[in-house]
């Protein structure tokens, strides 16, 4: 059975790095894994998405509308933007964090209110303040790894040796911080 994970966010949030760590862990665990990423205007704070599909035999890296088992959104509005890709019985993990896009900053549109409530009315939603927890453990840049931890727990991937994945793919001086971040994320779900 193929499982599909959709990670979405805004450029600079570490969405792609989280998906690469996830993909590496899944491959080392013996799964057939396909990943695709869309950067949009990521360098300028635009939408970023990464699709990770894994199982015994994965034919395509692309998640169709209504095909994601889990949607992990690094920014609230992105969860709404990508919600149609979630299966009817899928889960949303949403970082309770707001990044204002250029249209919002320029005053052309307003940031929508009640996003988490709207999501909760439609699908099983787990809201986390990953940014706050990242700051508490010492570095807001590990928000992405905290969100990776939520995926690991929600998708029951705890048996994979995530410590090895972190040690092999993160600069040595950031290993302990990232290991703590994964643990924090797993405890949020």
Automatic annotation (TrEMBL):
Residues 11-186 form the Pyruvate/ketoisovalerate oxidoreductase catalytic domain. Keywords: Oxidoreductase, Pyruvate. One of its GO terms (molecular function) is oxidoreductase activity, acting on the aldehyde or oxo group of donors. The keyword Translocase does not apply. Pfam families: POR. Signal peptide: none annotated. This is Indolepyruvate oxidoreductase subunit beta. It comes from Clostridium magnum DSM 2767.
């Amino acid at each position: 059975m193929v499982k599909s994970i959709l990670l979405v966010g805004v450029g600079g949030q570490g969405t792609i790095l989280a998906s690469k760590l996830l993909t590496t862990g899944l491959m080392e665990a013996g799964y057939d894994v396909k990943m695709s990423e869309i950067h949009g205007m990521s360098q300028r704070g635009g939408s970023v998405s990464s699709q990770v599909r894994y199982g015994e035999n994965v034919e395509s890296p692309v998640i169709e509308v209504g095909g994601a088992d889990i949607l992990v959104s690094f920014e609230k509005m992105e969860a709404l933007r990508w919600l149609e890709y979630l299966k009817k019985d899928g889960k949303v993990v949403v970082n309770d964090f707001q990044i204002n896009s250029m249209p919002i900053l320029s005053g052309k549109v307003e940031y929508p209110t009640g996003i988490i409530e709207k999501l909760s009315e439609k699908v099983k939603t787990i809201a986390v303040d990953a940014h706050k927890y990242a700051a508490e453990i010492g570095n807001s840049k590990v928000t992405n790894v905290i969100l990776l931890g939520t995926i690991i727990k929600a998708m029951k991937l705890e048996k994979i040796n995530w410590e090895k994945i972190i040690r092999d793919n993160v600069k040595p001086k950031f290993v302990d911080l990232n290991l703590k971040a994964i643990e924090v994320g797993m405890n949020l779900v």
